[in-house]
Amino acid sequence: MPSVPPTAPVPALARFPAAVHEAFHRYRAAGDPGAAEEVVIAAIVDYCPPGPGKLAAASNSARLLEDLGYDSVAVAELIFFLEDLFDVSIQNEDILAISTIGELRACVTRKLAGRPGAP
Length: 119
Description:
- This protein is mainly α.
- About 50% of the residues lie in helices and about 0% in strands.
- The protein is built from five helices and no strands.
- Helix 1 runs antiparallel to helix 2, helix 2 runs antiparallel to helix 3 and helix 2 packs across helix 5.
- The relative contact order is 0.15.
């Protein structure tokens, strides 16, 4: 993880609400996986293509493509954002195995847990 103070502003999160910033700082300071998942959910909501009722279906079993209206470009943008934010690498095999919100959350959590120095 980059050597940035845990409470320093994170430019990538500039458009997100304060609660997301707080969750990211909790993750960065203490390695709280629940806080990281909060940030992942906020990113899913932020990158979700517009459409009526899509976010109402946003549960762990909601499918990114079929239920939320993501296309391959939107999925790629979301993955790139999460990789940059958390300084992880999500491989193509991982991406191909992700179809739901729950699977994406689990993938990011696994990547964070597998980092050197992870709690």
